[in-house]
Amino acid sequence: MCWWAFTGLTHFIVEGYFVFSPEFTKDKTANYLAEVWKEYSKGDSRYVARDAAVVAVEGITAVLEGPASLLAVYAIATGKPYNYILQFAICLGQLYGCLVYYITAILEGDNFSASTYYYYAYYIGANFSWIVIPTLIAARCWRNICAAFQAQGQTKKSKVR
């Protein structure tokens, strides 16, 4: 649940700010979220340039995956039967977003960082958990969903006899 709360709030608030504040670089008020994106842009200048692929991925993430992640917190806490399929779907979305994010960078030359430090700290490091954790959660959900279908199949077979 902690992961879903963290990722949901990150997507909804932090990435939502980026998507819906196209002129964050001009903000001189020391707004915390504007400063976060100015700093992160040192690792990926496509954010400052408002690259269409980056804005699209972040928009989908903020609008769909953020609220869905918070719904996952509720579903897990209350034992809703849809919690595994919801978590699995969100994980697929997060992994797909990471793939699009990295593949578009590679196709465009992967030269968007101010330095090697920012490349590894922000571009690679800050996104690493959105590959590893969703992969682990998706695998766990897959096993639980398959086990439920297997149990349902065995129940049907025993009723037929």
From TrEMBL:
Kindly list the places in or outside the cell where this protein is found, as annotated in its UniProt entry: Membrane
The residue ranges of the EXPERA domain are 1-138
The signal peptide, as residue positions, is 1-16
Entry GO CC: endoplasmic reticulum; membrane
Any GO MF annotation of the entry: C-8 sterol isomerase activity
Can you supply a Gene Ontology BP term from the record? Answer: sterol biosynthetic process
Which keywords label this protein? Isomerase, Lipid biosynthesis, Lipid metabolism, Membrane, Signal, Steroid biosynthesis, Steroid metabolism, Sterol biosynthesis, Sterol metabolism, Transmembrane, Transmembrane helix
Topology in the lipid bilayer is annotated as: Multi-pass membrane protein
Transmembrane ranges, per UniProt, are 52-77, 84-107, 119-139
Q: Which InterPro entries match?
A: EBP (IPR007905), EXPERA (IPR033118)
Q: Does the keyword ATP-binding apply?
A: no
Record-stated family:
Belongs to the EBP family.
This protein's name? Putative 3-beta-hydroxysteroid-Delta(8),Delta(7)-isomerase
